[in-house]
Amino acid sequence: MPVPTFTQSPNSSPQPRQSHRTLWIVLGSAIGVLVFAALVTGAVFVALHTFFQQTDQPVPVAANYGLAFMRQDYANAYADLDSQATINGQKVDEQTFRNLATTADAQQGKVTGYSLDGSNSASLFTMTVRRGGRNYQVHLQLKLEGSVWKIISVDGI
């Protein structure tokens, strides 16, 4: 059986190779944008984490307290309280604090947002809490103990 032979006709020229240069430029640019966005996101996360972990200033302590309620992280919220802290005038231990918080969540809904106003004093804050579709105010009083600010009084959960 004869083997077929293929030859190029004398009038045809080889096909020019198609360049993928534009594709590589677009792909490289997209990767560059994604890497930049990841770096910026990481930097913002580190800055916020550092802010909320600060205890030598009253604002981050009050802000961390509110954030802990949003996360339902009551151990972290309780850690912002002084050992003699009161809620609605009553001294609370960690278990009582947790019970008050979880009861409020069950009856009124979870905390979905908050804002702080501390314009009157470095140690007094009004926290406007968003819970269960309504807003209400909670007043925080803080005290500097050594180099750490602690919440000594709260008039609500």
Itemize the secondary structure elements and their pairings.
Elements: H1 21-53, H2 58-71, H3 74-79, E1 81-87, E2 90-91, H4 94-108, E3 111-117, E4 124-131, E5 134-145, E6 148-154
Parallel strand pairs: 1-6
Antiparallel strand pairs: 1-2, 3-4, 4-5, 5-6
Question: Explain this structure to me?
Answer:
The protein has four helices and six strands, in the order H-H-H-E-E-H-E-E-E-E. The model has no long low-confidence stretch (mean pLDDT 86). Strand 4 and strand 5 (134-145) form a beta hairpin. It has a domain at 51-154: Roll (Nuclear Transport Factor 2, Chain: A). It is 43% helix and 27% strand.
CA(first)-CA(last) distance: 94 Å
Helix content: 40-55%
Nearest-integer average pLDDT: 86
Any idea of the CATH topology of one domain? Nuclear Transport Factor 2, Chain: A
Per CATH, the class of one domain reads Alpha Beta
Spatial ordering of strands, largest sheet: 2-1-6-5-4-3
Sheet having the most strands? 6 strands, mixed
Q: Find the structural class using helix and strand composition.
A: alpha+beta
Tell me which CATH architecture of one domain applies here.
Answer: Roll
In sequence order, what are the helices and strands, one letter per element?
HHHEEHEEEE
Rounded to the nearest angstrom, the radius of gyration is 30 Å
Stretches where pLDDT is under 50 for at least 5 consecutive residues are none
- CA-based shape: elongated
Number of H/I helices: 4
The proportion of strand residues reads: 25-35%
Count of β-strands:
6
Which key phrases capture this entry?
six-stranded mixed beta sheet; Nuclear Transport Factor 2, Chain: A; alpha+beta; single chain; 157 residues
